[in-house]
Amino acid sequence: MPSRIRRGDRVVVISGRSRGARGVVRQVDRKKQRVTIEGVNMIKRHQRARSVQQQSAIVEREGPIHISNVMLLDPSTDEPTRVGFRRREDGALVRVGKRSGEAIE
After folding, report:
1. Which residue(s) pair with 47 in the sheet?
2. Angular region, 8: left φ>0, alpha ψ -120 to 50, beta rest
3. pTM of this prediction?
4. pLDDT in tens, 63-73
5. DSSP bridge partners of 25
């Protein structure tokens, strides 16, 4: 089964600490069912100095969110929508936004 959410999709977070935040999917981990969204769920990590010239620092980066906590934004209406699949005439599967019924590419 193809993935409902892919890298480059615009999504909105529907639950959790970052609820309501919108962003673009940077990375999808299908095995762990998690997505990383640009500018959302920022976490801080301590980084040790690797050499004498480099200093240790606190690095802020995006943390992964479970895929069930995000919804795809419909490109035509910019509203959250569920995702379905439909076969085209040539036999290829295409994602379809349930809200508008239009294909998502």
Report:
1. 57
2. left
3. 0.83
4. 999 999 999 99
5. 37
